[in-house]
Amino acid sequence: MKLWGGRFQKITDQMVDDFNSSIRVDQRMYHQDIYGSIAHAKMLGECNIISKEESELIQKTLLQILQDIEEGKITFEIDAEDIHMNIEKILISRIGDTGKKLHTGRSRNDQVALDFRMYLKDEVKQITSCLVELEQTLLSLSSKHLDTIMPGYTHLQKAQPITLAHHLMAYFQMFKRDIERLQDCYKRINIMPLGSGALAGTTYNLNREMVAQQLGFDQITQNSLDAVSDRDFAIELASCLSIVMMHLSRFCEELILWSSHEFSFIEMDDAYSTGSSIMPQKKNPDVAELIRGKTGRVYGNLFALLTTMKSLPLAYNKDMQEDKEVLFDSIDTLKQCLPVFIKMIETMKPNKAKMYAGAQGGFTNATDVADYLVKKGMPFREAHEVVGKMVLHCIHNHKTLDSLTIEEFKNFSLIFEEDIYKAICLEQCVEGRNLPGGPAKQAVLDSIEYGKQFILKTQKFL
């Protein structure tokens, strides 16, 4: 008989049991469910709602159940619906009527909200730890490529010369914001809902603050109706995970381009590449492509959760059972992508010569020619027009700006002197941009140091 079956005259159809059950999805929360129940049982005993002896027996038995689960001695039942009812059913089978007292003063509605929040708190910290490892990898790679000059792009057209270190540190900033978003999201997850009951609290004099303190929550929810129907924290986390995947996907897109024959900026390690079943010469960046592809899956999970919640009246509705599968999938997907992505970029081989040659083409030093004229007194808009004409001249004559003779330079403006060649060499173009956040070596070193300090601060959160 179901634990809730008192008012029913017929047993649930087996097909409905299977359809209604969420144990396949939520069984992973057994640890959180047991520790949440232990905290609840301890509070019930301290508040004399059940006896101290009953409370201690329940707590002791729950720990035994936890050990048995982890040793593989327990098989969960579909007809017990979910992890909460499975564990309670096992508890009752072991200690009888005393086990039936555990659910005093709580509903599955606030119980599941508690377990879900506890589980997500753990996962946020694990994901943050993975992101810290990625950030450390980016700092290490950047330190090795402070002098590796490459073209920077806008519209996927060559724009200005930068360094590989500067490019990698741009991604450091993206993942830094991801970490900050996760930490901020954690604040809204870390609110304790137990004691809200089904929707209207309970007549028992519960000590909610005691439970929150035992379980490491910062505060308790302030409205019982909202507490059991709120899934904002899950949607927010799904959004945070989607943004992380978006950043990984952007990075992967560039790595895919860079590893192509047309770019040849990097070569993927054999261990993180695959071949073709028909073309023996192929070395495909499948890891990067698959991460890029999985991004759409995580986006879909976010929209599935938003769509599920968009028309639900207060308070709990069975639709909300769908919240975990999509969010768990997003968590699993990201946790699968991050370690392989880190190893992929650790082992890739940048081709410095190709990158430098790439920066030499496409007139990446054109802005520096204009800046040279401006520093000599020419208004910027006029300088822009002069250099535009110079670029057109070079295109027609198959030349680069730095290959022009001084006479050719002077044909466009008498301001030009011999020092123009030093001003527009690639090294000077990079080093001349020595402002905070710029690509010059010292600016990037400062950015790396700032990154190290951020990681130290983040590790305190973990």
Describe the 3D structure.
The chain is mainly alpha-helical. Helix content is 62%, strand content 5%. The chain has helices spanning 14-20, 23-26, 30-46, 52-70, 83-95, 108-144, 164-189, 208-214, 224-229, 232-258, 286-309, 323-347, 352-360, 366-375, 380-397, 406-412, 420-423, 426-431, 441-461; strands at 149-154, 157-163, 191-192, 219-220, 266-267, 349-350. Strand 3, helix 8 and strand 4 (219-220) form a beta-alpha-beta unit. Helix 11 (286-309) packs antiparallel against helix 12 (323-347). The longest helix has 37 residues, at 108-144. The model has no long low-confidence stretch (mean pLDDT 96).
